[in-house]
């Protein structure tokens, strides 16, 4: 085994005795370096190893590489699994770049065959340096400067700290066979251009540019780790009723506040497309705007300030419908509403109100709010605008359309989860009652 390989494994501490491992092997120098060294390690640590090879179907020599990897696997008595896919067709079908399509196909294939296995890929130090430059060119933030992680979601990169020149030197000195992928020398992909043009030019200014970029990665990784820890410590306090607290974000450092916002989006919307510097800055700026201010983040997602909260959510497209209510359970767009002339037992998931049945005029139905609605809250002697009632209670502007308004033929008699009307309250003259129970409303 190569001393660099052994030292790197000890440093990373990612391979244990009796591990089950999937090696991603293309047949190129990096993956064959990984393969040959793991074949020696296999006996030492009694490893259970399989090899996965994806034939992208985009070059004439792909079959040559497939046959080569199969032959060396047969020689070393290692299980060989191959899959054929057309990277370019997949890219067109899914509106992806060829590079992104290839990445998705590869990792999907590796995971298909790696239940309870550690996936090992052959990314090296030069790949990491190229990724950092690629991210800088795209205008990356701090996380982009971290580069390729050693481990991510069960994928390990045990030679990430070894330079390509050291890999090729070891293979040549030990007369170990591999095949070059000729597309790696064509300036058709951005990463190829970085490898073939940009880095050689940067060496005119700094001969050790790869090492410098790796130091940048280490520094960024340490800074990112510290920032993530700070965001973790602050995160729970920054969330109020499932939304971001304006008060907390205001008193938190701006950088940490934006990290909290970023984490909130990842955890609640699962939509990384809207996570960019412009959107994060706009969301942060909302904390200083007046309540009701909203911004469009794209992907059918908006963010708005609602009193003491910042809300980030998908735009609702379906409108809640009105429905007449009968005795018994009524399934409505506002939840299950139960009308009963008998006493009901309240539980933690329902709101029960008792009304004077004789004060109700005509039918009972539930609907969303309407322009001009007026309501006489319990204990008041006059009607007030429903809009003012919601404002007084600091009810979010969008949520107002989600709240069920229960009415008779003349008036609002109950606002679900809130107040009944003074006009239908039970008093000493009440003879007949009706109970309203709103479940999950």
Structural overview:
Helices cover 39% and strands 21% of the residues. Strand 10 (301-306) and strand 11 form a beta hairpin. The mean pLDDT is 91. It starts with a helix and ends with a strand. It is of the alpha+beta class.
Give a quick set of tags describing it.
441 residues, alpha+beta, Rossmann fold, Uridine Diphospho-n-acetylenolpyruvylglucosamine Reductase, domain 3, Phenylalanyl-tRNA Synthetase, Chain B, domain 3, 3 domains, six-stranded mixed beta sheet, five-stranded antiparallel beta sheet, 39% helix
The biggest beta sheet reads:
6 strands, mixed
CATH superfamily of the largest domain: HUPs
Q: How many strand segments?
A: 21
Structural class, judged by helices and strands? alpha+beta
User: Unreliable runs, pLDDT <50, ≥5 residues?
Assistant: none
CATH architecture of the largest domain: 3-Layer(aba) Sandwich
What share of residues are in beta strands?
15-25%
Q: Roughly how many Å apart are the termini?
A: 65 Å
Instruction: Walk across the major sheet and give the strand order.
Output: 3-2-1-4-6-5
Mean pLDDT: 91
Number of helical stretches of at least 4 residues? 14
User: Which of globular, elongated, flat, extended, rod-shaped describes the shape?
Assistant: elongated
CATH level-1 class of the largest domain: Alpha Beta
Number of domains: 3
Roughly how many Å is the radius of gyration? Answer: 32 Å
CATH fold field value of the largest domain: Rossmann fold
Catalytic activity: cytidine(34) in tRNA(Ile2) + L-lysine + ATP = lysidine(34) in tRNA(Ile2) + AMP + diphosphate + H(+)
Keywords: ATP-binding, Cytoplasm, Ligase, Nucleotide-binding, tRNA processing
GO molecular function: tRNA(Ile)-lysidine synthase activity
EC number: 6.3.4.19
């Amino acid at each position: 085994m190569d001393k660099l390989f052994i030292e790197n494994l000890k440093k990373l501490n990612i391979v244990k005795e009796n591990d089950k491992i999937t090696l991603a092997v293309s047949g190129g120098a990096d993956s064959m370096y990984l393969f040959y060294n793991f074949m020696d390690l296999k006996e030492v640590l009694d490893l259970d190893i399989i090899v996965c090879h994806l034939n992208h179907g985009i070059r004439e020599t792909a079959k040559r590489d497939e046959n080569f990897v199969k032959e060396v696997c047969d020689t070393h008595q290692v299980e060989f699994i191959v899959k054929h896919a057309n990277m370019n067709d997949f890219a067109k079908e899914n509106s992806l770049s060829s590079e992104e399509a290839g990445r998705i196909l590869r990792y999907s294939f590796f995971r298909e065959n790696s239940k309870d296995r550690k996936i090992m890929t052959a990314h090296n130090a030069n790949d990491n340096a190229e990724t950092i430059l690629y991210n800088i060119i795209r205008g990356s933030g701090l996380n982009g400067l971290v580069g390729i992680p050693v481990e991510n979601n069960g994928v390990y990169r045990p030679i990430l700290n070894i330079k390509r020149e050291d890999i090729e030197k070891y293979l040549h000195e030990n007369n170990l066979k591999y095949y070059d992928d000729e597309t790696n020398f064509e300036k058709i992909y951005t990463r190829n251009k970085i490898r073939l043009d940009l880095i050689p030019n940067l060496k005119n200014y700094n001969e050790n540019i790869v090492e410098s970029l790796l130091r940048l990665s280490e520094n960024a990784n340490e800074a990112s780790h510290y920032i993530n820890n700070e965001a973790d410590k602050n995160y729970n306090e920054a969330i109020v009723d499932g939304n971001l607290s304006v008060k907390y974000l205001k008193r938190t450092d701006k950088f940490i506040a934006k990290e909290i916002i970023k984490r909130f989006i990842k955890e609640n919307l699962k939509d990384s497309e809207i996570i960019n510097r412009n959107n994060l800055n706009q969301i942060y700026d909302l904390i200083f705007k007046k309540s009701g201010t909203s911004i469009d983040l794209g992907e059918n997602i908006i963010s708005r300030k609602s009193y003491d909260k910042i809300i980030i959510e998908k735009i609702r497209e379906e409108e809640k419908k009105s429905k007449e209510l009968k005795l018994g359970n009524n399934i409505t767009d506002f939840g299950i509403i139960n009308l009963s002339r008998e006493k009901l037992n309240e539980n933690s998931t329902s709101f029960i109100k008792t009304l004077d049945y004789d004060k109700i005029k005509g039918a009972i139905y539930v609907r969303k709010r309407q322009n001009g609605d007026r309501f006489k809250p319990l204990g008041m002697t006059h009607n007030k605008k429903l809009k003012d009632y919601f404002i007084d209670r600091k009810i979010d502007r969008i949520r107002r359309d989600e709240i069920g308004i229960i009415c008779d033929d003349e008036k609002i008699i109950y606002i679900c989860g809130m107040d009944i009307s003074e006009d239908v309250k039970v008093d000493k003259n009440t003879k007949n009652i009706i109970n309203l129970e709103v479940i999950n409303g």
